[in-house]
Every structure is written in C-alpha cells, then in structure tokens.
Amino acid sequence: MTEAEKARSQMREGHWTGPTVYKVPGFVQCNLVILGKPNAYDFLLYCQRNPKACPLIEVTDPGDPVPHLSAPGADLRTDLPRYRVFENGKAAGDMTDIRALWNPDSVAFLFGSSLTFDHALARLGIPPSEDVWVFDTSLETVRAGRFHGPLVVTMRLMSRQQAITATQLTTRYIYTHGAPIHIGAPGEIGVDLGHPLVGRPLECIPESQIPLFWACGVTPQQAAVHSGIDHMITHAPGHGFVTDLQADRTCLP
C-alpha cells in the first residue's frame, strides 16, 4: 500500500480529519467540486476558461464516485479529510463523509492543488511556510453560465532569491496552478492583507520578504457564493484529495 493509499484509508475510516498541507509528499493533491449534472457542463466550461484556478485532473461520470484515472479504488464521498457543503450560495457546514448527499447524477471535478509542489520547493531549499494565506482578489474570473466571481489566491512569503527559484520551478507544474499570477505589491491585485479568507491577518509584508500569489482552488467556492448555486460540495480549504499520481511526473519535463 502506497502512502497515498494509506492516507485515504485513514480518511475513509475517520482517523484523519485534519489538513493535508505539507502531508503525503510526492503525490498530486487535488481540490474537489461536486455538482449535479444540470450544473456540471457550465462548471466544466468555467474550468476550461479559468485553467490557472481550476486545472482539471479528472471529471467523473455522473453517479460514479470513483476517480478511475487518478486514484482507482478511491471513493470521493469518504476519502477526503473534510468537505464543505454550499446551499443556495452559502456555506452550510463541513462534513467528513458525504455519502448521504451523493446523488445518482452527482459529477465530481478534481483539479490540481498548489499543495502538490511544496515538497519540490523544499527539495530546492525553500522550506514550508509556517503560515498559509488565502485571499480574495479584485481580479474577476471568466464567467461560464451561472458561475462567476473573483479569483482567489494563496500567498507565500519568500526571499527574493527564493521567489526566482519558486517561479522557475512552479512554471513546470501546470496541472497544480503553475507559476504565480502575481509577485509583489498585494494591493495591485486587490488583496487586503488584513482580511484573509484563511490565515492570520497581516499589517504589512516584512522588508526581507516578497509575497508570491498563486491561483487557488478555493476560487470555485467563491463562485458558488457569488452565483448562488443551489447545491455544491467542495473540499474544505487545506483538506485536499490525495491521488495516486506522482507529482514529479505530473508536470512539464
């Protein structure tokens, strides 16, 4: 049994309900969106039009909870540590098992998470950040049907040399958000350091560091809010789905 399979087994049994941040290195982690078939086509277009935020890894057949291409034998109803449920555009709570909410027409979308390349950054001497930040921006995603809303980003703080290395490396990881969408002044993309979606508020960026912003898989959650989607299930932020795909092989050479 691989480390990815062990992790999913612990999640399925309810023993692992915490974040997957910096966990199970070497395997592609994914963000998750589950929708009914009537909304699935529009969301597929949304992903196609916004590939930095939603780099698709796999889309399941209606009613089938098994991601046959990325993790055969896994069950997307139980094999994440924590899910977030949205009803009529509002977060209705978190769950650790969504079998009761799965329907015959449910379609699951998996798209790569930037949690995947943290291990590769560490191998190059860029240690994991003690803090993880997620922010709204003033950048609008490209609308598709009902789905619209702001681009959401993750922020990492690095030295200037580390920022160069991180940009060069993550450019290869196009299936897990790729290169940063912005480097430097947060205000230029509408980021309010004092009001993160996830993480502690900041007054300013330390002089010795520079902020790097990557497109984030929380973007569809904000689209659910802004679009008033009647029913959507996603991963809880930082609680990704661990696939069997090897990170260093799911990237550009």
What is the CATH topology classification name of the largest domain? Answer: PSTPO5379-like
The total number of structural domains is: 2
Shape: globular
Which structural category fits the helices and strands?
alpha+beta
Order of helices and strands: HEHEEEEHEEHEEHEE
Indicate the CATH architecture of the largest domain: 3-Layer(aba) Sandwich
CATH superfamily of the largest domain: PSTPO5379-like
Topology at a glance:
Layout lengths: L2 H10 L14 E10 H13 L6 E4 L23 E5 L2 E6 L10 E7 L5 H6 L9 E8 L9 E9 L1 H11 L11 E2 L26 E6 L3 H9 L3 E5 L5 E6 L7
Provide a descriptive summary of the structure in words:
With 253 residues, this protein is α+β, with helices and mostly antiparallel strands. It has 2 domains: 3-116 and 221-249, PSTPO5379-like (3-Layer(aba) Sandwich), CATH 3.40.1640.10; 118-215, PSTPO5379-like fold (2-Layer Sandwich), CATH 3.30.2040.10. It is 19% helix and 27% strand. The chain is built from 5 helices and 11 strands, in the order αβαββββαββαββαββ. It has helices at 3-12, 37-49, 118-123, 160-170, 219-227; strands at 27-36, 56-59, 83-87, 90-95, 106-112, 133-140, 150-158, 182-183, 210-215, 231-235, 241-246. Strands 1, 2, 3, 4, 5, 10 and 11 form a 7-stranded antiparallel β-sheet that branches.
